[in-house]
Structures are given as structure tokens and as C-alpha cells.
Design a protein that fits this description.
Blueprint lengths: L1 H26 L5 H25 L6 H18 L9 H19 L13 E3 L3 H15 L19 H13 L3 H29 L2 H13 L26 H22 L4 H19 L1 H22 L6 H16 L9 E3 L3 H8 L8 H12 L3 H20 L14 H12 L4 E3 L8 H4 L1 H14 L4 H27 L4 E3 L1 H11 L7 E3 L10 H6 L2 E2 L4 H6 L4 H12 L5 H10 L3 E7 L13 E6 L3 E6 L1
Parallel strand pairs: 5-6, 5-7
Antiparallel strand pairs: 1-4, 2-3, 7-9, 8-9
Helix pairs in contact: 1-2, 1-3, 1-10, 2-6, 2-7, 2-10, 4-7, 4-8, 5-6, 7-8, 7-9, 7-18, 8-18, 9-10, 9-11, 10-11, 10-12, 11-12, 11-16, 13-15
């Protein structure tokens, strides 16, 4: 595994870092050497994703790696012409490295045990719903771009941002890595390290103090909510905290890219004349790629671009700056059209206060506040909207402060930063209070996540205003003590969570399917067996006719119709003719897999499917 991780690191350098240095050099923007390394890496990641997407969509994906290698040659030739300057290592470099390593260990350890075989041949997975969806989509993007729906085959995948999965699939196909090592270990280490590095460079730009910037990185990794005060977990007030974000890889990749986007805007805000137009290249690249990784980040960054450009227009009276948001909006529309987002109009629903009410009522949040709930129901029954909104105004500070934890003090520094950055934070915090997402109703809470590292930096900025060094140290210690309880309790619980175990029997059955070189083959399982995850698709590395109801609903598929069709096929009471017609309708269904549960019935021989693997718990058929 160590050798594979070193190969992964080498490929990151070749595919992302070296091309990124070339792109950044084109801007002729002079920044700190460490900042240049981080910005180049982020820009390289964004460029590699965009190149892979465009070439894949054009049917020229095979050109992506040669083109990247060509850029590497250009970079190396340019380096040969320059006199290399030996970097001067300082104590701060060792300190930031130590904090980032600690942060990586904390974040990655929560899920790093997944996909490792146990002595009895079984395999455990700490979390299965989201991770199985992403792994199945990585497999699918390794097959083709644009992808089909891995859990609704053979229909195309629409209304989903899959740039993280595309990024991962390029390393999977090129590097030949074990998918579980890549997804659960290599990529998380990379993304966690990126988070720490990007917070450091942004904090140093805003705070202008290296030691406090390291403190900001520490607090970013380890700060939890105030859930511990009410005896609940990290998401008691709704928002999952930074130390668990690797459970959501698209969010984990989008966050450092978003932060570097803010970093570039910070420079663009104070640069005038022709120099500013060179930075547009970075802004537009980051904006376009964020849309495809996490649409929430793309919208927030687009808002930041628009507000910043309008402020500069007011100051300079130069209408040219307004082209930047217009081009960014054009890029957003381009992604919507090309990325298969065909139902954007039904993405959000106006639902003011939904999260506030759910926070007070849901048993997995604060819950149990019977008096509060009854009071609201009484107000609603008598149409007392003043009373309802009075409750909402009381819930609002609980929601904001509870989720931010110690970061709430950073809001006091909102007037000390550019207005466009304050606007981004405000929208990030408040957008979920007015809109919910159709399908996964709670998904808009993810807007809030992008405020967490920004308010962490602002909290550290507040500490920097304290003149007395002794008091400054005391305040930092107090903040850390208050920040850690939720993180510690969550990590303790996670250590004992082995997750779901996949039996050796099931793995053996799926290994037969996985070895089939037919990339278009579809595996068919009873809907009830895979309704909550894409387990069969992950273990077999094949498309599934139907699995994972939530993602089918999120991508606006007719999942109820497909569930009914699948249930009819496996029903003991359904006639043979229906089953034959069903299989004729889907000729790509090559395998049928069943668990021998209470609803199990062996398939009739006339369906022309033969048994190729059978145990007392499961059975696998192949089309004759």
C-alpha cells in the first residue's frame, strides 16, 4: 500500500502540480513561494478535471494524459533554463506540517478501515450509502463520459455533479489502484492535506501572522459544534463538522478549491490595470470546475465574483470588470447544458424556516422539546404568524451559534474583511434557512459548510487584535478547550464503529461478475435488497438495473415505476410471460443475483438464465 501511495503522489505531481505551475505562471502574479505551490496544485487539479471532462465528452479522453505529459515537458524545459533556488526551511514549516499531519490522521482515520479484508474473508465498510454511490460512479466514469446512471441502468445520469468521481476515475484507470485504497485512503489523505494547506495560505493573507495562521488550520481540523453542551453529537444543530467532511468526497474536494478561489479574489480585489485580467484565467477555471464538483460551492463562488466585480465597478467606473461575472455565468450555463443538468428549475423549493423547525423537533437533532413544539402547533392552529416568527427569531441564533461553535466569534470581524467575502459568508449561513432541495430535502445545509473554515479564519483574526501576548495565548487555549469536546466524542464513537460486513460468499459471487470483461453488462437484483445502497454495483464493478432509491430520486428518475417492475418480476405470483417480456425489454441484463431471504424463489428455467454460483444464502444467474 505504501508503494501504491507513493505512485499516487507521483501521479498527482505529474497530472496536477506541474501543469498547475504552468497555468499560474501565465498570470505573472507574484505570491509567496509556499502559496504558489498550493495555488498551483489546486489550479492543476481544476485544470485536469476540466480537460478530462471536455475531452471525454468529445470522445477524445485518450488524449488527456498525453496532453498533460506534454505540458509537463514544457514545465521541465522552463525549469532547466532557470536557476533553482534552494528553499529555506523555517520552524513554521515544521509546525504547519505537524498540524496538517495531525489533521489528516484525525479525518482519514474515521473511514480508513473500510474495504480491508478480515481474516474470515469478509470485508467491512464503515459507511455504505454515500461511499458505494461514489465508488459505483467512479467505475462508471472509467467506462464512459458522459456516464450512465450506475444504479438505474441503462439510463443516462442527469442532474448530478460528478467531477470528483471523474477526477478519481482518471487515477483509477491510469494508475491501476485498488478502488478501496484509492477511495478510502489515498484521495482522503490528499484532500485533507489540501484543506490544511489552503486554510493556511488564506489565513496568512487575511491575518498576516504565520503562527496564528497555523492556529486557524488546527481549529479548522478540530473545531466542533456546541452539540456537547446539550449532550448531543456534532450535527445536533444540523451541520456536520469539518473533521467528518471526508465522508462527503465532493465537498472535501470542493472546499480547498473554493478557498483558493477566495484567495485569488482577495488579490484580484486590490489589483487594477491590465494585471487583473491575467487572474481572470484562474477565477474562471475555478468557477467552472466548482460547478461540476459541488454546485453549492459553484453558486457561492459565482456570487462572490459578482459582488466583488460590482464593487470594483463602483470604485473604478470601468465596465470591463463586469465581464468577469458575465463570463462566469456563461460558464455556469455551459456546465448546466453539457453536464446533463436538465431539471435545474426543480432543484430548490422555497421553505423558510424548515431547518429551524426540524432542528427543534427531530429526535436526531435537539428533539424532545415538547413544550416548544406544542407552542408552535398552537400558533399555527390559530394562524398566529407573529408567534410563529417570534419562535423562528429565537431559533435563529441557536442554529447559527450551535453549528459554528467557537467560530461564532469570527462573525464580529465581518466588517474587517472585504464586503464580497462577508456577503459569501452571509449567504452560506442563511441560504439553507430559506430553501430546501427537492429529493434530499436537507442537502441545502451544505451551503453552510463553506462558512466553517472562513469563520474559523475570522475567529483567529479576532484573536490577532488582542495586543497582550499572554492574554492572546490564554484565549487560544480556551478556544481549543471549548472546540474539542464534540470532536473527541465523535472520534471515540467512530473508533468502535466497524460498519457493515460483506460476507465472503457474497464477495465470491460478485467476483465472478467483476471478472466479466463485458463493460455494458447489467446486474439485476430484487429492489428491496439494494434499495438503500449500490452494494451490488460496487462489489461487481457493473451497472445495476435498480439500486439506491435516494440517488434515483435525487437525479429525478422514475424510481417508483422501476421498483414496481422489479418487485413484479421477483414476485411468486407473477406469470412467466411478464418475466420473459421484461428480460426482452432489457437485453443488457446479463446477471441476476438474489439473496435467499423469505421472498426468495428460484427462477424458472424457461427464462434462459443458468445458475453459475450458489450457496445456502445467495444465488447468481447468468444469461444463456
Amino acid at each position: 500500500m505504501i508503494i501504491d501511495f507513493l505512485r499516487f503522489t507521483f501521479l498527482i505531481t505529474v497530472f496536477c502540480f506541474l501543469p498547475g505551475t504552468l497555468i499560474v505562471s501565465l498570470t505573472k502574479h507574484k505570491i509567496h513561494r509556499f502559496d504558489n505551490i498550493v495555488v498551483s496544485l489546486i489550479v492543476g487539479v481544476a485544470g485536469f478535471i476540466l480537460l478530462s471532462f471536455l475531452l471525454g465528452y468529445a470522445g477524445l479522453r485518450f488524449l488527456a494524459i498525453p496532453l498533460v505529459l506534454l505540458l509537463d515537458v514544457v514545465v521541465l524545459l522552463r525549469l532547466l533554463k532557470k536557476k533553482l533556488i534552494r528553499p529555506k526551511l523555517r520552524w513554521i514549516h515544521g509546525l504547519i506540517t505537524l498540524v496538517i499531519v495531525l489533521g489528516i490522521i484525525c479525518q482519514v482515520s474515521l473511514n480508513s478501515g473500510s474495504g480491508i479484508q478480515n481474516p474470515d474473508g469478509s470485508v467491512n465498510f464503515t459507511e455504505t450509502r454515500d461511499s458505494f454511490w461514489h465508488i459505483a460512479l467512479i467505475y462508471e466514469l472509467a467506462r464512459q463520459i458522459p456516464p450512465l446512471h450506475p444504479g438505474f441502468a441503462p439510463e443516462p445520469l442527469n442532474n448530478y455533479h460528478y467531477f470528483f468521481n471523474l477526477f478519481a476515475s482518471q487515477f483509477y484507470t491510469t494508475g491501476g489502484f485498488d478502488i478501496y485504497d484509492l477511495y478510502y485512503r489515498f484521495l482522503p489523505v490528499f484532500m485533507s492535506g489540501l484543506l490544511g494547506a489552503t486554510v493556511f495560505v488564506l489565513a496568512r493573507k487575511i491575518i498576516k501572522n504565520e503562527l496564528l495562521s497555523v492556529t486557524a488550520v488546527f481549529l479548522t481540523y478540530f473545531t466542533g459544534s456546541f452539540g456537547w453542551i446539550v449532550g448531543r453529537g456534532e450535527s445536533a444543530f444540523w451541520v456536520s463538522q469539518t473533521f467528518t467532511m471526508l465522508m462527503n468526497p465532493p465537498l472535501s474536494l470542493s472546499l480547498p478549491i473554493f478557498l483558493i478561489g477566495i484567495y485569488v479574489l482577495y488579490d484580484l480585489y486590490v489589483i487594477y490595470g491590465k494585471r487583473q485580467y491575467r487572474l481572470w484565467l484562474l477565477v474562471l477555471l475555478i468557477s467552472l470546475v466548482l460547478n461540476g464538483i459541488k454546485i453549492y460551492a459553484g453558486l457561492l463562488f459565482l456570487g462572490g465574483i459578482s459582488v466583488m466585480s460590482f464593487i470594483k465597478f463602483i470604485k473604478t467606473k470601468s465596465i470591463t470588470i463586469l465581464l468577469l461575472p458575465l463570463i462566469s455565468i456563461a460558464g455556469f450555463i455551459f456546465y448546466i447544458k453539457l453536464g446533463g443538468i436538465n431539471d435545474a428549475g426543480n432543484f430548490l423549493t422555497w421553505a423558510p424556516g424548515w431547518f429551524l423547525r426540524a432542528m427543534m423537533e427531530a429526535p436526531d437533532r435537539l428533539g424532545g422539546l415538547t413544550d416548544w413544539t406544542l407552542r408552535e402547533e398552537t400558533y399555527l392552529a390559530y394562524n398566529n404568524w407573529f408567534g410563529v416568527w417570534r419562535l423562528r427569531l429565537l431559533e435563529l441564533p441557536i442554529f447559527i451559534a450551535g453549528n459554528l461553535g467557537i467560530r461564532v466569534w469570527g462573525l464580529l470581524m465581518m466588517t474587517q474583511i472585504p464586503f464580497y467575502l462577508s456577503a459569501v459568508i452571509v449567504v452560506s449561513l442563511l441560504f439553507p434557512l430559506f430553501f430546501v432541495q427537492n429529493g434530499s430535502i436537507a442537502n441545502t445545509i451544505q451551503f453552510f459548510y463553506y462558512a466553517l473554515p472562513l469563520t474559523t479564519v475570522l475567529t483567529t483574526l479576532l484573536v490577532s487584535k488582542i495586543k497582550n501576548t499572554a492574554w492572546k495565548i490564554v484565549i487560544i487555549i480556551v478556544l481549543i478547550i471549548i472546540a474539542l469536546p464534540t470532536t473527541i466524542s465523535y472520534c471515540q464513537a467512530a473508533c468502535f464503529n466497524k460498519g457493515a460486513a460483506i460476507s465472503k460468499e457474497e464477495l465470491s459471487a460478485m467476483e465472478i461478475v467483476k471478472k466479466d470483461s463485458d463493460q455494458s453488462a447489467i446486474i439485476f437484483v430484487p429492489p428491496v435488497d439494494n434499495i438503500h445502497s449500490l452494494k451490488t454495483g460496487v462489489l461487481s464493478a457493473k451497472r445495476v438495473w435498480y439500486a439506491d432509491r435516494l440517488m434515483a430520486e435525487n437525479t429525478h428518475k422514475l424510481f417508483k415505476k422501476r421498483e414496481e417492475e422489479g418487485e413484479r418480476f421477483f414476485s411468486k405470483n407473477e406469470n412467466l410471460l411478464y418475466k420473459q417480456q421484461f428480460l426482452q425489454q432489457y437485453p443488457k441484463i446479463k446477471y441476476i443475483y438474489q439473496e435467499k431471504n423469505i421472498n426468495y424463489q428460484k427462477l424458472p428455467e424457461k427464462l434462459l438464465f443458468k445458475v453459475i454460483y450458489e450457496t445456502e444464502n445467495n444465488i447468481l444467474y447468468e444469461r444463456m
